[in-house]
Specification:
There is one protein chain. The protein is built from 12 helices and 14 strands. It has 3 domains: 5-49, Uridine Diphospho-n-acetylenolpyruvylglucosamine Reductase, domain 2; 54-165, Uridine Diphospho-n-acetylenolpyruvylglucosamine Reductase, domain 3, CATH 3.30.465.10; 169-263, 2-Layer Sandwich (Enolase-like, domain 1). The relative contact order is 0.12. It is α+β, with helices and mostly antiparallel strands. The chain has helices at residues 12-22, 33-38, 74-79, 81-86, 88-95, 100-105, 108-114, 121-127, 141-144, 212-220, 224-228, 245-263; strands at 5-7, 25-27, 46-49, 59-62, 65-69, 131-134, 138-140, 145-147, 150-151, 159-165, 169-176, 183-191, 197-202, 209-210. The strands form 4 sheets. It has a 5-stranded antiparallel β-sheet with strand order 4-5-10-6-7. Strands 11-12-13-14 form a 4-stranded antiparallel β-sheet, with helices on both faces. A 3-stranded parallel β-sheet has the order 1-3-2, with helices on one face.
Length: 264
């Protein structure tokens, strides 16, 4: 490892000040950042560890919304009775991330801020039209993710919580890489109380996106058959040793239909 400065603030204000003054990187669960540092893909001069900030933890139901603190670990979300009662699809997302070690260290805030193109949480965030809350502002999910590993966060901006509207029904279906458990294609389907439908896709493109053709089909008929009958374009989809753009285009409606079958 190369030399780094490690700081562990106790308050959100101190963390933001440290990031602004040093140009460092916030450290949440470290499941992506530390691995990137080992490979020399990331070389921050300063790490600002957020684990000691109590205000960034906690899971609560607030009216018709579920508010999950940014430093809540995947395992905590997966086992939370509050989450299971309000929106079990989110517990399912958390339970399917990586392996037990990753789930016990990784955090929702870190996963959302990192915006790995194959991560699970971005699909849930966009699929529910969640709000990302930071130390500076509230950001709608549709405005937050900008591209591969890219978001609208400023250098000294810290996610404090993810605020999910509680959906009438929702589910997540993932075709996972058997080694990494990242999504080759993952699809989150949600229907709100007013009948609106959102379908968010991860793993298939450089960043999470909404499958609006499938949304339109499900608004007409909320059935697995309707979802599976949509033909997706290969434009902009990933192609690699794990799957071609055509293969991913095929998987998107298949995973969407499986998600719908869980809740229809």
């Amino acid at each position: 490892m190369y030399a780094i400065e490690y700081q562990q603030p106790k308050t959100l204000a101190d963390a933001a000040s440290m990031l602004a003054s040093t140009g460092g990187r916030p450290l949440a669960g470290g499941q992506s950042l530390v691995a990137a540092m080992k490979l020399r893909l990331s070389q921050p001069g300063t790490l600002v560890d957020l684990s000691g900030i109590a205000d960034l933890r906690g899971i609560r139901k607030d009216g018709e919304r579920l508010v999950i603190g940014a430093m809540s670990r995947h395992a905590e979300i997966a086992s939370s009775d509050v989450v299971k009662a309000a929106m079990p699809a989110l517990a399912s997302v958390a339970e399917g991330i990586g392996d037990r070690q990753v789930r016990n260290m990784g955090t929702i805030g870190g996963a959302v801020a990192n915006n790995d193109p194959a991560a699970d949480w971005p699909a849930a965030v966009v699929g529910t039209a969640a709000t990302i809350r930071t130390n500076k502002r509230a950001i709608a999910a549709d405005d937050f993710f900008k591209g591969m590993f890219e978001t609208v966060l400023a250098a000294d901006e810290i996610i404090t919580a993810v605020d999910f509207p509680i959906m009438q029904r929702a589910a997540y279906a993932k075709f996972a890489n058997p080694a990494s458990r990242f999504a080759l294609v993952g699809v989150f389907v949600a229907q709100s109380a007013n009948g609106d439908v959102r379908v968010a896709v991860t793993g298939a493109a450089p960043s999470v996106f909404r499958a609006k053709a499938i949304e339109d089909a499900l608004r007409q008929s909320f059935t697995p058959v309707a979802a599976k009958g949509v033909k997706m374009s290969t434009d902009g989809l990933n192609g690699d040793l794990h799957g071609s753009p055509a293969y991913r285009a095929h998987l998107i409606p298949v995973m969407a239909s499986r998600a719908v079958a869980m809740i229809a």
